[in-house]
Amino acid sequence: MTVHQKVSQAFKAQFGQSPAVVVRAPGRVNLIGEHTDYNDGFVLPMAIDRAVWIALRPRSDTRVRIYSLDYDSHGDFDLTDFAKADDGWLEYIKGTAWAMQQAGQTLSGWEGVLAGDVPLGAGLSSSAALEMASARAFTAVSDLKWQPSAMALFGQQAENHWVGVNCGIMDQMISAAGRAGHALLIDCRSLETEAVPLPPDSVVVVMDTATRRGLVDSAYNERRAQCEEAAAYFGVKALRDVDLLTFEARAAGLNPLPRKRARHVINENDRTMAAVAAMWADDAVTFGRLMNASHISLRDDFEVSSTELNIMVELAQAQGGCYGARMTGGGFGGCAVALVCSTQVGEFAAEVTDVYQLKTRLEPNIYICQATNGAELIAG
Ligand code: ADP
Ligand code: MG
Q: Which 3 state secondary structure label does DSSP give 196?
């Protein structure tokens, strides 16, 4: 049974009728452009065929009542009077409502059933999917216009200020604005986007190392501070404003760590633009090489990879039919991503699973992904 069928069926069982509205919002994987978002740079994620779904109907009052199938738990709050709590999944929905109301939007209540198949905490951004599904639900029942970048900002505010996770704009933006068959180039300064077709005859494969690291927050804050130090040294707002020639001419005056971090970010922005050009040219080979170079830069200059990520990436790169591979997401654990020739993807997945298991004694998860649309409204 699909998740769509699951939420619709559970809705019928609970309310005795079909849902008036069904919404979905996808998780994502970033193909290239890592740790560039908070430097006002470029990222190139795609929305994946795993999503958070909500089946719902409007209410005539201001209550929001949701049943989470995956947690088997009920949550509710009143839009005129709600506060932060330690309510897990419900906080993402409350946070999204809070951000929308802060911006002056008038929201109506609704009730429904929530479920998803984005793995939780794996780095595929189930939280952004939940925020964007919530925003889609609120806009549907409140007769508001769906504006992807505005909604993405609400989701980011929810995550930053309500849930308390310091994330950039990428996850919400791709979940809101993705396009089937395409990756999305996002300019993290202007929030302009460009849909770029994926190379033909190739598939995106996500490889979860089955490792999660603590201390990620402090490492992330440290990297951000080092990038800011480098930007200040160059006298610009963000590293987005420094090109490679300027960097090379003046890098010697920078402290060693900010210098390495800046070198990654500046090169990664260039690689991301080169990757877009490669995609428009249907050039999977060049795209793959840029992914490989991105991994080395994240490993050596930005220093956010891990033993398991390096094993997974090298293993992927060694397979026939693999154009390229890299760690993806914040780092220190989580997932790697590869671009693989369609006809060889079965063998690729089997071989990577076996050898990774042998080498690490860990059980990886492999997701062969299709690029889907961003948040959507689907009639009941
Ligand atoms: P990630 O975004 O990397 O998947 P996070 O820790 O940021 O991991 O977000 C995961 C949280 O999002 C879950 O703990 C849960 O609260 C919420 N969430 C995601 N998907 C669902 C779902 N299908 N049902 C209920 N809550 C969900
Ligand atoms: Mg998240």
A: strand
Contact 114/54 with Cβ under 8 angstroms?
yes
Domain co-membership, 42 together with 179: yes
Query: Ligand 1 in contact with 68 (CB < 6 A)?
Result: yes
Q: What angle do CA 187, 147, 11 make, to 5 degrees?
A: 120
Residue 159: C-alpha distances to residues 121, 185, 355 (Å):
14, 22, 37
For residue range 191-216, what is the model confidence (pLDDT) as tens digits? 999 999 999 899 999 999 999 877 67
- 211 and 171, same structural domain? no
Q: Strand ranges (DSSP E) for 291-348?
A: 322-327, 335-341
Q: What's the DSSP call for residue 371? A: B
Q: What is the CATH number of the domain that holds 35?
A: 3.30.230.10
Residue among 29, 90, 126, 172 to mutate when testing ligand 1 (max atoms within 8 A of CB): 126
CATH value at residue 334: 3.30.70.890
pTM of the model: 0.96
pLDDT of the residue at 322: 98
Closest-CA residue, ligand 1 atom 2, reads: 125
Which residue in this structure is represented by tokens 């793959």? 288
Nearest ligand for residue 71 CA: 1
Could you write out the DSSP letters of every residue in 54-65?
EEEEE-SSSEEE
Instruction: Return the half-sphere exposure (C-beta side, CA atoms, 13 A cut-off) of residue 248.
Output: 4
Q: Which residues have their alpha-adjacent CB atom under 5 A from ion ligand 2?
A: 127
Residues 178, 55, single domain; the answer is: yes
- Which of 269, 272, 271, 234 has its CA nearest to residue 250? 234
Active-site hit among 37, 171, 208, 301: 171
Q: Which domain holds residue 359?
A: 199-369
